[in-house]
Amino acid sequence: MRIPAHSVCTAIRDDIVAGVYERGGRLTEELLARRYGVSRVPVREALRTLEAEGFVVTRRHAGACVAEPTEQEAADLLEMRMLLEPLGASRAAQRRTEAHLKVLRGLVRLGQERARRGGSEDLRSLGGWFHETLAQASGSPALTSMLTQLRHKIAWMYAVDAPANPVESWAEHGAIVDAVARGDAERARAITSLHTERSTAAHRLRFGGANGVRNSQHAVNMSSLRH
After folding, report:
1. What is the C-alpha end-to-end distance of the chain, expressed in Å?
2. β-pair partners for 213
3. How far apart are CA 90 and CA 193, in angstroms?
4. How many CA atoms within 13 Å lie on the side-chain side of 185?
5. Residue 223 pLDDT greater than 50, yes or no
6. Residue 207 pLDDT
7. What is the DSSP letter of 213?
8. Residue 5: partners with Cβ closer than 8 Å, 6 or more residues away
9. How many CB atoms lie within 10 A of CB 25?
């Protein structure tokens, strides 16, 4: 069964974010096709998409390579996120559905419970799902797409420290949902702005290390891409 290019794109992007391919490292179609068990056609399409997203650059005599963002470019991403996430929350207060609210409230309940018990890895995943759902609740596919792309690139460029007070952090998530549920766009924007500003302070650049492709002998499971 032919694996679609967008699935190959997701797999390559995830490996770039995870550091399997170092900044500046070459990405040859032949090796990528072999790694992911696909033909070169979806790999070629995926590389074009990743170049448009800023993860890949095409260099003369070298072909496709992992991009090497500067510190200023990385800082710009955080500033863009600080502007767009509050906008998304404001729009969500005006356009959210009951289905969005149900998911957001469920994530807040889980997050607050885990925050009281501890467990930063679970909280990180729950936080990602929360902000993804909040973006979707904005009712703007363009804004949702931009925020998703920002999250991918920020995860690639930055390591994030766990919140000093996860209970307080999830209380802020709860306050955002309360404002969204009431349709209070300004309060949703203000709380999200404060929350995003505090979160940004916990980001540390990952830059550094040798170029090239990191040795990775683990098998790549593409079975989920076939469904």
Report:
1. 10
2. 21
3. 10
4. 10
5. no
6. 76
7. B
8. 41, 42, 45, 46, 49
9. 17
Q: Is the pLDDT of residue 62 over 90?
A: no
Q: Parallel, antiparallel, or unpaired: how do β-strands 63-66 and 158-160 relate?
A: unpaired
AA letter at 213:
V
Query: Residue written as tokens 């997050």?
Result: 111
Task: Please report which helix (H) or strand (E) contains residue 4, including its range.
Answer: none
Residues in a beta bridge with 205: 158
> Among 2, 135, 31, which Cα is nearest to 12's?
31
Per-residue pLDDT, averaged over 156-174, amounts to 92
pLDDT tens-digit series, residues 172-213:
999 999 999 999 999 999 999 999 999 999 999 987 543 333
Contact assessment for residue 207 and residue 145, using Cβ atoms and an 8 Å cutoff: no
| Alpha carbons 154 and 204: distance in angstroms, whole number | 10
Nearest one of 154, 193, 155, 160 to 73, comparing CA atoms = 154
For residue 144 the two structure tokens come to 């949702």
Q: Which helix (H) or strand (E) holds 47?
A: helix 40-53
The dihedral sign for the CA sequence 162, 145, 208, 212: positive
Asked if pLDDT for residue 217 goes beyond 70, the answer is no
Tell me the sheet residues that pair with 57: 65
Length of the chain as a residue count: 227
Residue indicated by tokens 């032919």: 2
pLDDT in the model for residue 2: 61
Read off the amino acid at residue 11: A
